[in-house]
Amino acid sequence: MDELDRLFGLLVAALARETRIAVPFPAADVYERLVPYRSNRSHLNVATHQDYEMAVLRLLSGERGYVQLEPENVREAMQREIATINPDPTYFRTFPDAQVMVNGRAAERMLHADRAYAPSSAPDEDEELSDATGENPVPLSHVPPAAFRVPRSNDQPSSNQCEYCGGVLPANRKIRFCPHCGQPQEGELKCQGCAAVLDVGWAYCLACGRATGFE
Length: 215
Hints:
Blueprint: H1 3-17, E1 25-26, H2 28-34, H3 37-44, H4 49-60, E2 67-70, H5 72-82, E3 99-102, H6 104-116, E4 130-131, E5 138-139
Antiparallel strand pairs: 1-3, 2-3, 4-5
Helix pairs in contact: 1-4
């Protein structure tokens, strides 16, 4: 787990606390309100503010499929910047009003991973894992699992939309993979080489090292 994974985990915890996982929000909320640098530096394990900004840029550019940024031209601009030799880590601040949509499956997997690695016995008060988003940290153990499940509403992707990126899928055709993001639409992600279960955004299989094709 690196700073991008930790940033996404803290973001998901903050949104779950507000029961807003499935609600789009301005990009500026990530670094100004939900996961500000000042109160999350130690939890992100970043050495400098520039490292923090680079993690935010990576997140908003769509790395690992954790979030999707709209409009499309802004998302593409972020991706072009992150692909340069020396990307400007503050570039995301150019688009504070761009809308961010969290990948619901990735958010739920993040919760499951936190529960899987949690200690079996109740931690001491001083050791309790906290959600350090904003100014008032909240223990992750207090966030209900249901908060990470994306509810169906009129604003959520319909049956002809990809559950990962929200892209419109072709009608009257059997869809196994999304033509926009390449993610499978049924079942778990599995390696084509060894059938090991993969996670969202992985470029290579942990078990055999084969490229997943889901970048």
